[in-house]
Write a structure and sequence with these properties.
Distance between the termini: 63 Å
Number of strands: 0
Shape: globular
Largest sheet: none
Order of helices and strands: HHHHHHHHHH
Number of domains: 1
Strand content: under 5%
Number of helices: 10
Length: 262
Amino acid sequence: MSSSGPRTSVSPSGRSWRNRRLDPDRSLGLRLTLASAAAFLVLVPFALLAVLVVGAWPPLHDLDAAVTDSLHRFAADHPVWVRVMKVWTHLASPGPLRVAALVVVVWLWRRGARRLALWVVTTMVVGGALGAVLKLLVGRDRPELLDPVARAAGYSFPSGHALNATLAAGVLLLVFLPFTRGRPAARVALWTAAVLLVGVTCLSRVALGVHWASDVLAGCLLGVAVVAATAAAFRTWRERVGLPAGRATVDGVAPELTDPHA
């Protein structure tokens, strides 16, 4: 007569935190873990850049100075270019972008997508607040040019214009991507608009001599990290209440937004 010992099983609640977070059968934990990791990985180069700026690393300073000097010489010889850059930098400044975000919030609220509207507000507010705090902590001075074509007040790192343009571009993409489903041309146009918003805004700040190139790069990195983090939190809530979730960069954060009765 043979006997076997009692079988033991490990309940999901008894598994390690690491195993639960990486379990493909527990999609909520896996998605949140991957999104959090992505946000962290974006913050790593931002943190490294901040350390190099605070430490006044000579190669970074020399590169910033070379880019600024080159663009300033071009601007000094091309007044029309300066006027175009000034118009763009005013239109894409934090104030107008926040007003545009508020318009989107009101539209979403009236459409019944109130949690999505709150996500937009949270993304813009958290990102803007982080940028303001980091400017004070780093305390980097703006470029000092002998014959400046533009002036700006306050500290330089990270660029508030680049940060808010990235936040606005992220909101633009993740809110309106559902409306491009099955429309490749519209999807390309939306992505192009988002990239141009960020790219030209960054260029304008350096071209006008009011920011170093590393300032605008830092603003973009911080903006991407904030959008990734808030989008991850929003998608986590959606999964908990049983709402559909697709790929954020393809379907946006609310794929059902195209159905006003959803």
